[in-house]
Amino acid sequence: MRATSKPIARLDGALRAPGDKSCSHRALMFAGLAEGTSVIEGLLEGEDVKDTAKAMAACGAHVERLSLRRWKVTGVGAAGLKNPEGVLDMGNSGTGARLMMGLVAGQKLKATFDGDVSLRSRPMGRVLDPLSEMGAKNESNGGKLPLTLEGAPLTAIEYTPPHASAQVKSCVMLAGLGATGTTIVNEPRKTRDHTERMLRAFGVTVDVEEKDGGTRVSLEGGQKLVATNVDIPGDPSSATFLWAAGLLVQEGSVSVLNVMENPTRDGLVHAAKAMGADLEVTKTGESGGEVITRITSNPSSLSAKSPDMAIVPAMIDEFPLFGVLAAFADGDTLVTGAEELRVKESDRITATVNMLKANGVHAEERPDGFLVKGCGRGGVPGGGVVNACHDHRIAMSALVMGCAAKAPVSVDDISAVATSYPDFFAHMQALGADIEQG
Ligand SMILES: O=C(O)C1=C[C@@H](OP(=O)(O)O)[C@@H](O)[C@H](O)C1
Ligand SMILES: C=C(OP(=O)(O)O)C(=O)O
């Protein structure tokens, strides 16, 4: 289905961010690995997370939806999971696929993984390589889905992923839980640390040493997970769409509540503030080992500011939206050190540049990023149709752009939005956006 976002003068209101996608995947997996029953509150009921719930159920965990966003998972303990009968269809989700591969290998299971056209195009060698080094076997389609993975008695490894990737780190750690010895992952640039934090909540000892912007994470194999109740904090990546729209329109004030503040996720807040964004972040509590904040944005004139490469992992999912902010800024913005964007749900360098160009903004690709020539506040022409490329973040970024462009912005296919933010349209409408679907 198509959607068109029309220019509007003001956005106003306060909304609760949906549950964090990364934490939701992990909560379902860890609860399924644990012995006993865990209740998960605030689970993101997006398609990606529902696919993980189905995969865990197929591996023998008891997964039940109690009520809206409240799920119960009864694990059968480390030795109790079984080989799934059918294919594990991980849909559009790189996180679901790669973390489940670590879990399957570590539990010595055999499973076939598949996904949608976007996921089938994404590289799985980055997890298959360390899993093979640990002793797992696989047959894949040239390092891509569909693939069959078979666990075996695994041996712990010390691994330095060639890419900054929380999915690779988490996959190796999940496999390490079932391996003999101490599994170590060295990260030259620290990535999101939800696996480390949440495994501890499930009773696992995880050691983390931080050094020069990187980390060394280690865990001993054979540790048992203990069931625990989990409160999923709000997703800082989903929240960005709401507060960014509040910055770009002419009037109003937008507050997003219950937003997780984690230094491995808040890159766009810093990048936007460096551009002069009127953003206020207030601590309002703590939940599940994470700080919870309210983020309030007010209409702002932005000045171009190219982000430092060191901030890239902390805003890795926010570059399509960052491209939109750069389009409304005065001056040129250059993104570098972000070549990982090429292997997300779409090639997000190409897709972001095309999104901007289709709407009259001068943008150019770079091998590891992109250049945007800002049009200034209120200066983005709009009027284009954006190819979402099966990518939720491209679709939502384009619709945010439409709120403040001179002419409406359309997206050819909005189906991917439901993978991470099924309430996006309801939330934008509640703030006063004029987005027509169909
Ligand atoms: O571990 C996670 O939950 C995620 C890690 C990141 O991917 P990479 O590990 O590929 O960078 C991110 O882009 C994705 O949205 C979620
Ligand atoms: C990259 C993303 O997710 P995944 O890798 O899980 O598909 C994302 O949500 O932006």
TrEMBL record:
What compartments host this protein?
Cytoplasm
Q: Which family does it belong to?
A: Belongs to the EPSP synthase family.
| Residues involved in phosphoenolpyruvate binding | 21, 94, 122, 167, 348, 393
InterPro entries membership: Enolpyruvate_Tfrase_dom (IPR001986), Enolpyruvate_Tfrase_sf (IPR036968), EPSP_synthase (IPR006264), EPSP_synthase_CS (IPR023193), RNA3'P_cycl/enolpyr_Trfase_a/b (IPR013792)
Q: In which pathway does it act?
A: Metabolic intermediate biosynthesis; chorismate biosynthesis; chorismate from D-erythrose 4-phosphate and phosphoenolpyruvate: step 6/7
Q: What is the lineage of its organism?
A: Bacteria, Pseudomonadati, Pseudomonadota, Alphaproteobacteria, Hyphomonadales
Name this protein carries in UniProt: 3-phosphoshikimate 1-carboxyvinyltransferase
**Taking every annotated instance into account, which residue ranges of this chain make up the domain Enolpyruvate transferase?**
7-427
Q: Could you tell me which species this protein originates from?
A: Hirschia litorea
Binding positions for 3-phosphoshikimate per the UniProt entry: 21-22, 26, 165, 167, 317, 344
Q: Where is the active site?
A: 317 (proton acceptor)
Describe the protein's quaternary organization and the partners it interacts with.
Monomer.
**Function in brief:** Catalyzes the transfer of the enolpyruvyl moiety of phosphoenolpyruvate (PEP) to the 5-hydroxyl of shikimate-3-phosphate (S3P) to produce enolpyruvyl shikimate-3-phosphate and inorganic phosphate.
Under the heading Gene3D superfamilies, the entry gives: Enolpyruvate transferase domain (3.65.10.10)
Q: Does the keyword Membrane apply?
A: no
Task: Alphabetically list the UniProt keywords.
Answer: Amino-acid biosynthesis, Aromatic amino acid biosynthesis, Cytoplasm, Transferase
The question of whether Cytoplasm is a record keyword is answered with yes
Q: Which reaction does it catalyse?
A: 3-phosphoshikimate + phosphoenolpyruvate = 5-O-(1-carboxyvinyl)-3-phosphoshikimate + phosphate
Query: What EC number(s) is this enzyme filed under?
Result: 2.5.1.19
Classification via SUPFAM superfamilies = EPT/RTPC-like
Coiled-coil ranges from the UniProt annotation: none
